[in-house]
Dimethylallyltranstransferase
Amino acid sequence: MTTPKAREEAVLEAVRERRELVNDAIPEELPIQRPERLYEASRYLLDAGGKRLRPTVLLATAEALADVEPLTTDYRTFPTLTGEPIDLMDAAVSVEVIQSFTLIHDDIMDDDDLRRGVPAVHREYDLETAILAGDTLYSKAFEIMLETGADPSRMVDALDVLATTCTKICEGQALDVTFEERDAIVPEEYLEMVEQKTAVLYAASACLPAILQGADQETIDALYGYGLDIGRAFQIQDDVLDLTVPSDKLGKQRGSDLVEEKQTLITVHARDQGVAIEDLVDTEDVDAVTEAEIDDAVAELEAAGSIDYANTTARDLVDQGKRRLEVLPNNEARELLCQLADYLIERGY
Amino acid sequence: MTTPKAREEAVLEAVRERRELVNDAIPEELPIQRPERLYEASRYLLDAGGKRLRPTVLLATAEALADVEPLTTDYRTFPTLTGEPIDLMDAAVSVEVIQSFTLIHDDIMDDDDLRRGVPAVHREYDLETAILAGDTLYSKAFEIMLETGADPSRMVDALDVLATTCTKICEGQALDVTFEERDAIVPEEYLEMVEQKTAVLYAASACLPAILQGADQETIDALYGYGLDIGRAFQIQDDVLDLTVPSDKLGKQRGSDLVEEKQTLITVHARDQGVAIEDLVDTEDVDAVTEAEIDDAVAELEAAGSIDYANTTARDLVDQGKRRLEVLPNNEARELLCQLADYLIERGY
């Protein structure tokens, strides 16, 4: 039995190894070309960092499906289930490019100043360039996916997943905006929003290799479900971490969701328990809130059982997601996907 | 020999007939669904009007290729060159949806208040919703194109055209932004920018039916070239009309391009002839400029031969585009595509 710490180390190493390959591929797939300022802005967040969790899910799922030992097969000429090779790295870069496009536009919409420790694109450049950089990444994601060289009918299915995923992300973001103006959100509504805004891109990352490699529909559906489950768990854990991780480790003010009155599974539950969420923190200015205020608010949320509720919900989703992986061959890559699921809710930040 | 006026009437009638069919299809392909505000904002400009010139090009090109009498064949079950039917209306709506997405984001970038006689989406709704509405239309265009039911390998080629077209539109818009900060633009640079920003969507509209119907590469390339030619001519004519059409007919202040110091083929040519473009109009406020100031400026541009130069360039492009149509069967729909090309530079507004 490995310890959680040892497990986390193993996952982080697996993520790191794939991240390096993805990081090498990004400038190849998205070179800085004319007009340079547009492409520099498009690459800005991609180059600033990121764990590349979604590409890791995509690449590891492909390894599990192909039943190959992890990291022994070139992702650029990766075997499908019918033999002919595809460029799987293109698919991995494509989902990361979609992720980056949504971050650029989200930062404009939320008027956030910082992302990955650097200025948001609309701060580093300007609003015009940030909108255009996101729009460029959007179509580039399709162009890059089109380069995998997969069989046309599989390619059509993959592009369909990519397009519907983008639509759902927009719908989820729009729901999130309406939630900010509403009080009585029930947990199901919150989870639906998170599914659309965050989880669908994990779902796409997990099922795209199955589609491109030619797996059967049952496998594709199970992997999509795995992605939805771990993606929702990931977002819930993000909400917990916002309350529990020291600001310096978090890279932003702890409790900022409370200050900004963002709906999370924790506040949705607490309100249902009779907690007056809007009174938990007095200020609406993230720079003005004190650690003591946040401590008191967190204590009240803990007393209402809301943090436990969020943790339990995330754990249940992860366990459900892991069970769905039984459609895959029992191999090292599948084990990695299980560990990755655990990591998403056990990670400290 | 028909008169230009009679020809224009015939073209307008052909556009009107197809526009009504496209207008019926838009709510079918893009219904208002949850979250309603997002979809209402996405539909706002589409519902506000528009000539549907790009869908008309697409539908008429398909009719010419299939060698059918215009408007006698259901676009929803349109014959390909290999017999099996496709839903061509989906392709027509898809390009119009792309056009609408670019208008919504362009209006944000240019901070324009009005479009098609109604407030821009970011004015009628808000910045967040306008960004998201554009993003939603972006992926919906791909989803709608995926519904044509075309053979997968043709579908892959069609989606490739759609994606690269969107990328080029972004690149063209980015070039346009950099031009605003530069003086010495040569005509070739201006035409390259217009090609990317405006003409590629006409090119896509003309070549997509050929791809979806299974035409050969020579035909696809010729139709793409026709679209590029007439799209550039269309934009040049737009620049001419901005100077020559009375404000009330134009729907905005005549000469606003001069006031806002936008680069057009006319100003690029005039500067080359030694005209001090920045001194043509004193004010930078569209609401403060007088008709007399615009009259003087236009007279100076005419004296420099710049308006003639723009007209000649547009005419040459249209003639070149029409010659490319010789790859098509000689039929009524091809004649319409020729008339449409003429209309783009003969139209009064």
